[in-house]
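[Discussion] Sanity-checking designs against the backbone

I'm trying to build intuition for which residues belong where. Below is a structure token string of 264 positions. I'd appreciate it if someone posts a full sequence so I can compare it with mine line by line.
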């Protein structure tokens, strides 16, 4: 049983007002990497983070800042942000290409076993039924997102159809990844088709679970719904300015509450 009490009134109003919903992928829509019960060496991002340290070492670049990192995406972004400071421009450019290709393969491998976030399919379908247009704006690879949603469709209906032609994944340079809002802007361009004109940031709502999502939405001027199923996530989001009364802990509750309001 879900309750209106589980969804803050401000968030309910934001859902009702929004014409376009931008979803982050890993977190709000799916769990791409299941966290192991222990500090397992088999955790895929950890293995790739180790590979990136070896790549850096072989290129003669500093490894120290990335010792102990479990986040290959963060390593990729950091190397991209340092650019030529990290080493010879051609060397760094080739390294970034290899890292990007490896992250693509990591995402595609993880998509084979990813699971839908609890309540995500219900909220996607409810929003689509209410005529809202949906898009994905993610730091993960576009092909992996599409493959994952197609696989989810086999058990949950036509999820990918709700995002058809409106999936913006990791762009061509780490500097364009969130918290840079570039993928949000590109998602809004995708939403423009069929909207009869430009899509205003105020007509959108971004659903995300990370600080990068919250910061990207703020920089784009897009209202932000934080997805925080636990207290740690909530603290992380509010620490970068996400409103506490715009945080959802239960996506199924959001779907149920929206459905009951519309059909009341």
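Best answer:
Here's mine. Compare freely.
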């Amino acid at each position: 049983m879900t309750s209106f009490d589980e969804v803050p009134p401000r968030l309910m109003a934001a859902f009702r007002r929004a014409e376009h919903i931008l979803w982050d992928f890993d977190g709000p829509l799916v769990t791409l990497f299941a966290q192991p019960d222990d500090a397992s060496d088999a955790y895929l991002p950890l293995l790739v983070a180790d590979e990136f340290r070896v790549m850096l070492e072989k290129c003669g670049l500093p490894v120290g800042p990335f010792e102990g990192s479990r986040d290959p995406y963060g390593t990729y972004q950091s190397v991209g942000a340092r650019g030529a400071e990290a080493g010879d421009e051609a060397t760094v450019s080739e390294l970034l290409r290899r890292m990007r290709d490896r992250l693509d393969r990591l995402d595609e491998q993880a998509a084979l076993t990813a699971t839908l976030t609890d309540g995500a399919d219900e909220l996607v379908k409810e929003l689509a039924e209410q005529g809202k247009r949906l898009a994905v704006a993610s730091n993960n690879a576009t092909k992996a997102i599409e493959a994952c949603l197609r696989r989810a469709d086999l058990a949950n209906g036509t999820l990918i159809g709700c995002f058809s032609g409106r999936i913006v994944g990791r762009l061509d340079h780490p500097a364009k990844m969130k918290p840079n809002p570039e993928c949000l802007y590109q998602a809004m361009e995708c939403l423009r088709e069929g909207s009869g004109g430009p899509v205003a940031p105020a007509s959108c709502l971004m659903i995300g679970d990370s600080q990068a999502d919250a910061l990207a939405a703020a920089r784009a001027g897009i209202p932000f719904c934080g997805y925080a199923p636990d207290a740690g996530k909530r603290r992380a989001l509010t620490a970068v300015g996400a409103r506490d009364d715009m945080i959802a802990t239960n996506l199924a509750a959001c779907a149920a509450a929206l459905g009951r309001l519309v059909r009341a």
